[in-house]
Design a protein that fits this description.
The structure holds two protein chains of two kinds. By secondary structure, chain A is an alpha+beta fold. Chain A has 13 helices and 22 strands. The longest helix of chain A is centred in the C-terminal third of the chain and has 20 residues. By secondary structure, chain B is mostly beta strands. The chains are: A alpha+beta, B mainly beta. Chains A and B meet through α5 and β15 of A and β3, β6 and α2 of B. β15 of chain A pairs antiparallel with β6 of chain B, so a sheet runs across the interface.
């Protein structure tokens, strides 16, 4: 069973040795985030900061809740040392068993209610995440609720939000994101403000669901229930008809303007760079803040190996696998290595070759093109073993015939550091599939044989070697 | 008024032209409200002029220009610019400049 709120999750990762508590005063202006950043880069623990400069100890910050597979395992209610392949299996199984949320009338997130005219976002210890960012980022590990203007579809997503002044936020849910589409198609044409709720410090399954790659018109609250194996409790917002996780630490209710913008970014993003994508964002006015007593603000020190890297690794890979299956690609496994900043995917197939690689790249770039590199390998390569993947890529991908490039306009990932400023503005880009499979037309008798113990030695020799190995104590 | 600001600009030569320009300034005064944003019509000078707040210019990827400027705020503007979501922010500022 998973933990029903953020605080019980913290107790669990403290027990597993995956939480470091810091009681000395730490500066919200870069120092705190710098500690979190180093934690990501060294596969370190999550951090709980109990004493924040200018804010004292009544408001706390937790950095990088699930930036390691150990903490993802705990978030899913599993032992911290659960193997990665098993975590993928658990996620896929639970994603198939959605559980709708339940509504409640009383909740911890309503312990303190600050009405709009009393709101001052600077009362929250919002960190300056990286030196040179456009401002202080409140939404780094958040869950943003929005509702479609014409249907019952409620979207949860993880989107960045920056403090502009006491009541104004700017944010960058991409225009191709579910929230972006809801805003542009449902509210902007009618000149209506779009209500949103930025939820911070909810139960972990809710955050994982929000960060997940999930189908259009799918309600992530149902997915959160499935992942947590219990219904998520929701409570109505104070100033809109949106519902938010009742156990949340902080809820910021706001309205996105249909006709106004303000500076947003730049920001050091999940691919591991600050790419200069600033200047095309949204702007929201806060209508109320509710929070628990002594609330905990969550922070993802965005960049290489952050919390979004692990969550997107699992949910993205499973979504890709399902999409490829739907298009009758003979897919076996998919892995999105977190080190790739959600730009690299490894796909193993039962039968490869140029046509399959070409079809994979076309299927995965048809709507949104977040991945720019896809390595296609034969099924005898374990996609979770990056050493084996690199070996296959380096040796089996033909430098000319093995690369399959597709280009697109209007749906590229504007956070891809390799793109020029002009490409980012036009949202134009490209994705390449590296076909690292043997051409199916090659006859088996002429196909190279891999020189590994499990491929180039008889079963009898393999058995003797393994016995010898064991007897040597190796 | 703050004594030190920073601003993110796409076209540095435009901002340093000596003409009135529209900018979003980030207040660098220490304390809880550090990095608060304010939209202004202002004149930027380099080298800095005595008696004016210091201004540091950053690029669109946040790289800080090592040479300081100063800024004279002519007028404080509304907190947001009139433009549809996802409009180019720098174009919205230029439009406000022409008014």
């Amino acid at each position: 069973m998973t933990h029903n709120d953020f605080r019980s999750f913290l107790s669990a990762i403290e027990a597993s040795g995956d939480l470091c508590t810091i009681n000395d005063e730490v500066d919200w202006d870069q120092e705190l985030s710098g500690i979190g950043r180093l934690g990501c880069e060294r596969n370190g623990p999550a951090f709980l900061f109990n004493n924040i400069k200018d804010y004292g100890s009544h408001m706390r910050i937790v950095a990088n809740p699930i930036a390691t597979w150990r903490r993802v395992a705990v978030a899913l209610g599993q032992p911290a040392d659960t193997p990665l392949r098993r975590l993928y299996q658990i996620y896929a199984e639970r994603e198939d068993k959605l559980i709708p949320p339940v509504m409640v009338n009383d909740a911890p997130c309503k312990e303190v209610i600050v009405p709009g005219d009393k709101v001052d976002l600077f009362d929250l210890p919002v960190p300056m995440v990286h030196e040179g960012d456009g401002g202080r980022y409140l939404g780094t590990w958040d869950l943003v609720v929005s509702k479609d203007a014409k249907t019952d579809w409620v979207n949860w997503g993880t989107y960045r939000f920056m403090v502009h002044n006491e009541r104004l936020l700017t944010g960058f849910p991409r225009p191709t994101s579910h929230l972006g589409r809801m805003l542009l198609e449902g509210y902007v044409p009618e000149g209506r403000p779009m209500p949103i709720a930025i939820v911070i410090g909810a139960d972990l399954p809710s955050h994982i669901a929000a960060a997940a790659t999930f189908r259009i018109a799918g309600n992530e609250a149902d997915l959160a229930g499935g992942l947590g194996q219990r219904p998520v409790e929701l409570i109505k917002c104070e100033t809109s008809d949106l519902y938010v996780p009742a156990s949340a630490e902080i809820v910021i209710e706001a309205e996105v303007y249909p006709d106004r913008i303000a500076q947003e970014g730049p920001y050091g993003e999940y691919p591991g760079y600050r790419s200069g994508e600033m200047g095309n964002a949204i702007c929201a006015r806060v209508t109320a803040i509710t929070h628990r007593r002594d609330p905990i603000l969550t922070l993802d020190t965005t960049g290489f190996m952050d919390s979004s890297a692990t969550t997107t690794s699992i949910s993205g890979a499973i979504a890709i696998k399902r999409r490829l299956e739907k298009h009758e690609i003979p897919v076996v496994d998919v892995y999105v290595p977190p080190e790739g900043g959600v730009h690299l995917t490894v796909v193993s197939v039962r039968r490869g070759g140029a046509a399959v690689a070409q079809k994979i790249v076309e299927v995965l770039t048809a709507r949104r093109a977040l991945m720019s590199k896809i390595i296609v390998v034969d099924e005898d390569v374990d996609v979770f073993n990056m050493a084996a993947v690199i070996h296959a890529f380096a040796t089996k991908c033909h430098p000319d015939r093995g690369t399959h490039v597709t280009r697109y306009e209007g749906r590229a990932n504007t956070l891809t550091p390799a793109y020029s400023a002009e490409e980012r503005i036009a949202r134009s880009g490209a994705t390449v599939a590296f076909d690292s499979t043997w051409p199916p037309e090659w006859p088996p008798e002429n196909t190279p044989v891999r020189a590994t113990l499990d491929s180039m030695y008889s079963p009898a020799v393999q058995r003797r070697v393994n016995e010898r190995w064991k007897s040597l104590g190796l | 008024m703050a004594t030190e600001y920073e601003a993110f600009v796409r076209d540095r030569s435009h901002v340093l032209s000596g003409r009135e320009v529209v900018l979003t300034l980030r207040d660098l005064s220490p304390g809880r409200k550090k990095y608060r944003g304010v939209n202004v019509r202002a004149i930027v000078s380099r080298p800095p002029r005595a008696g004016e707040p210091l201004l540091w210019i950053r690029s669109v990827v946040g790289v800080k220009d090592p040479d300081p400027c100063s800024v004279r705020i002519v007028e404080e503007l509304p907190e947001a610019f009139m433009a549809e979501p996802y409009s180019d922010f720098f174009e919205a500022m230029e439009k406000a400049e022409r008014r």
